[in-house]
Amino acid sequence: MACNLLKGKKGLVFGALNEKSIAWNIASRAHEEGAEIVLTNAPVAFRMGSIRELAEKLNTQAIPADATKLEDLETLFNKTMDHFGGKIDFVLHSIGMSPNVRKGNTYDDTNYDYFQKTLDISALSFHKILQTARGLDAINEWGSVVALSYVAAQRTLYGYNDMADAKALLESIARSFGYIYGREKKIRINTISQSPTPTTAGSGVMGFEGLMDFSERMSPLGNATAEEAANYCIALFSDLTRKVTMQNLYHDGGFSSMGMSHAAMDIYNKNLDDVCDCKDEEGVKHRTRPEDLTGEE
Known about the structure:
Layout: E1 10-14, H1 22-32, E2 36-41, H2 43-48, H3 51-57, E3 62-64, H4 70-84, E4 88-93, H5 99-103, H6 112-136, E5 139-149, H7 162-185, E6 188-194, H8 208-218, H9 226-237, E7 248-251, H10 262-272, E8 276-279, E9 285-288, H11 290-294
Parallel strand pairs: 1-2, 1-4, 2-3, 4-5, 5-6, 6-7
Antiparallel strand pairs: 8-9
């Protein structure tokens, strides 16, 4: 239900690709709450996704821009301010991509050229967006900037690889720029650590379906959906959260505070039902399935 939380506000949304995108949901909810939106994504995303359809639905512009290029960002902010006839009130950074993950490279067999691209696209782009906006004085006082993160910035999750390093850098940028922008213009900068969400990019992470299931079993409230992430983000764009800044805010159903849940332990124990204790040649005890002892399959 819309409450006009963003009535009269103007925002720039990075990263909407298709209906699976969290950014797509956030842009749609912001529009429902009374905001005017400009959409942007990399030129390749305009060929791959449906961003123009969303722009038509929201009666707005979709402007191609490579967020890793300063000249593209300067043009983007100037065009956005021209479209609105003034400054903007909020910005969403929903950008992340790892060539190493896409290629199936493990963390201990990283291609460093790919690694540099991961950091540039997924984290340094955030710094470039903030630096460009500040240089152009593009964001109104008491504005809000939000970037989407993930708990892998704090905890090791198998298969997330160099994206974990990128998210850690992303959160650090939010704190460092949050101090500068807050001190100067009262602009708040936060990151949201979202549950694993089946977006186009997220689904490419190794073992993603298993991760989704594990996270659902571990979280007392279950995984947060893209629609729920949009609702949370709207609150951060609104005037209701004017004194929240430099924070990494978990929106994960409680996953980040859990050690082990009953549901997850139940599955673990079921997998132990058909195993037995045995010792190897050095006397070290292992859990081994009975068939492994006989060589039978």
